[in-house]
Amino acid sequence: MINTREASYPIDTVYLQRWSPRSFLNKPIPEETLFSLFEAARWAPSAFNNQPWRFILARTEEDREKFYSFISEFNLNWCKNAPVLSLIISETENERGFNKTHAFDTGAAWGYLSLEATKKGLVTHPMTGFNFEKARSVLNIPEKFAINALVAIGYQGEKNSLPEVLQERENPSPRRGIKASLFEGSFGMEMNETTGSFMK
Q: Measuring CA to CA, which residue among 164, 189, 158, 190 is closest to residue 177?
C-alpha cells in the first residue's frame, strides 16, 4: 500500500498517515499503549469543560461477542480481527440542561484518539454500520447518552487477508481541495482555485 496523500500547505505528517484500514492483525495491544489513546482523548477541548465523551471498550472475547451481536454483517467480515472495539457515546444533558455541543466536543476527542493511535503504530476504523438501539440495549446505555460511532482499534494487517471486494478499497482515501471547503464572510462565497479570490 502506497500512501499518495499530499498536503497543499505545511502540516505534521501524522495527519496524512492516519487513515481507516479494514485489515487488522489478531494481536493484543499492551494496556499502556491502548490507554495512551484515551489519555489523548481526555485532553480534547469541550464547551464549559463538560467532557461529554465516554468510551465503552470490548477487549475480552466475551465482551467482543456482545459487540458482534449488534454489528452489521458487512462490518463483521473485517472487524473480528481487531483486538479492541470501542463504542463512542456522548452525554447530551448536564446541570446546564441540554448540551448542544456534545457531538462536536466528542468528535474532537475521537480525533485526538485517532491521531495518537497513528503515532503509536496503531490503526483505527470508525463505523456506523451497526444497530444503534440494539447496542443501547445490550450495553445498558442510558437514554441521556447519544451513540456516535463504533471504532475498531489494532495493528494493521495485510491487505490480502481481506475479501477481494474489500482489498480494492484498502487504500487511504483522498480529500477535496481545502478551498472547496472554505467560505469567506458568508455562505456561498467560494474561493476560486486558480486566482485564490472569492466569488459567488
A: 190
> Can you give the pTM of this predicted structure?
0.92
Buried b (16+ CB within 10 A) or exposed e, 78-108: bbebbbbbbbbbbbbeeeeeebeebeebbbb
Task: Provide the grid cell at 200.
Answer: 459567488
pLDDT band at 145 (very low <50, low <70, confident <90, very high): very high
Of 94, 126, 95, residue with least CA distance to 109: 126
Q: Tell how far CA 78 is from the center of its chain.
A: 16
Instruction: Count CB atoms within 10 A of the CB of residue 157.
Output: 20
Cα separation, 154 vs 185, whole angstroms: 42
Q: CATH second-level architecture of 14-161?
A: 3-Layer(aba) Sandwich (3.40)
Domain range summary for the chain, segments of one domain joined by +: 14-161, 176-200
CB proximity list for 145: less than 8 A, separation 6 or greater: 54, 89, 90, 91, 92
State the pLDDT at residue 186.
Answer: 87
Query: Are the CB atoms for 86 and 57 separated by under 8 Å?
Result: yes
